[in-house]
Design brief:
Blueprint (H helix, E strand, L loop, with lengths): L5 E6 L17 H6 L4 E6 L1 H4 L9 E4 L6 E4 L8 H14 L6 E3 L11 E4 L7 E3 L2 H9 L5 E3 L6 H23 L3 H18 L1 H12 L6 H17 L4 H13 L7 H15 L6 H13 L3 H4 L18
Parallel strand pairs: 1-2, 1-5, 3-6, 5-8
Antiparallel strand pairs: 3-4, 6-7
Helix pairs in contact: 3-4, 5-8, 6-7, 6-8, 6-9, 7-8, 9-10, 10-11
The structure holds iron/sulfur cluster.
The site of iron/sulfur cluster has 12 residues, from α2.
């Protein structure tokens, strides 16, 4: 159990703050109602943060999609690119304690992906990234980030929330003082989650930690964590989940009756074929581990990556 809620950054308009260019908001019920039970949100409006008024002339991205400029839609000489980038640098320091960030989609300041970058001479716009979001993410490359619209997809939401809790646990580990032993214990806890999301990195990170004594901990740990967070960005598939469920059920082989083993195997097979959702074999597996506790399995993040009510396993 966590003593306090995990902190998340969020675009202020998503929590209902009337900070948009037209004086409106873009309230996200998911964030303001469901997620706020589990997370402490720190809301930021970068455009207001750099001193732009409400209401205001909207801005848009123009030029090179990889390095766009944010300029006024009417007064093209009004360029707020540097102000937004500088503000992002400042907030990246102030918000050190957050474990994730939810950005407002399609905004020239906050949008993470596919923000329109307008081209000269009436050419079609190209996709880019909002100025504030891009600069903030450069400072926190491992931080879990997501756009509000994508969070309505249960698979993407589950993936984001899992990464947020992983990040928070890593922050806690660093605060306690990282040791080789603590790193091994951390990795051991994430082993099956990693196997489900990225079987290739599961092997390479296992090998990396197998040689831990030959490396400097201060250099290896950030590399390890970056790889882990990249791996967890992948969404587990029915095939990889089934593989993990089979591995986990192997820990029960001495304690289950042959009928129980058969039932477990059948449900994993039905999940693999798309007949039942993940929650069905997972619930039975957890039931068996409650009856036959195993210290190693009890620590596995795969079985409890975040508080139970946040798990939309029926959609997976
Ligand atoms: S998208 Fe970002 S900059 Fe625009 S109103 Fe919302 S918080 Fe402010």
């Amino acid at each position: 159990m966590r003593a306090s809620k995990v902190k998340l950054g969020i675009s202020a308009c998503l929590l209902g703050a009337e900070v948009r260019y037209n004086g409106g908001h873009r309230l996200s019920r998911l964030c303001s109602s469901n997620l706020s039970e589990y997370f402490d949100f720190i809301s930021v409006c970068p455009e207001v943060g750099i001193g732009m008024p409400i209401p205001r002339e909207p801005i848009r991205l123009v030029g090179n999609p990889l390095a766009p400029r944010a300029v006024g839609t009417v007064d093209h000489s009004r360029d707020v690119t540097n102000a937004l980038s500088t503000y992002a640098e400042r907030m990246a320091v102030e918000l050190q304690g957050i474990s994730g960030y939810i950005f407002m989609q399609q905004s020239p300041s906050c949008g993470l992906e596919r923000v329109k970058v307008h081209q000269e001479g009436g050419q079609p716009s190209k996709p880019g990234r909002g100025i504030y979001a891009a600069a903030f993410c450069r400072r926190h490359p491992d931080l879990p980030v997501e756009e509000d619209g994508r969070l309505n997809d249960p698979v993407l939401r589950e993936n984001f929330i899992t990464r947020v809790y992983t990040y928070a646990e890593w922050q806690h580990l660093l605060q306690q003082g990282l040791t080789r032993r603590a790193l091994i214990a951390f990795h051991s806890r994430y082993k099956y989650l990693l196997m489900a999301t990225d079987p290739v990195r599961y092997k390479s990170l296992g090998r990396l930690l197998g040689e831990l004594n030959r490396h400097d901990l201060g250099e290896l740990a950030p590399h390890y964590f970056r790889e882990l967070m990249s791996a967890l960005k992948q969404c587990a598939t029915r095939s990889t989940h089934s593989n993990v469920l089979q591995h986990l059920s192997g820990y029960l082989k001495r304690v289950l009756s042959s009928d129980e083993k058969q039932e477990m195997k059948q449900l994993i097979g039905q999940y693999r074929e798309g007949i039942v959702p993940l929650a069905v074999p997972l619930t039975l597996l957890k039931h068996h581990f409650r009856r036959h506790p195993d210290c190693y399995i009890a620590e596995q993040a795969y079985l409890q990556p975040h508080p139970e009510p946040l798990a939309p396993s029926n959609a997976l």
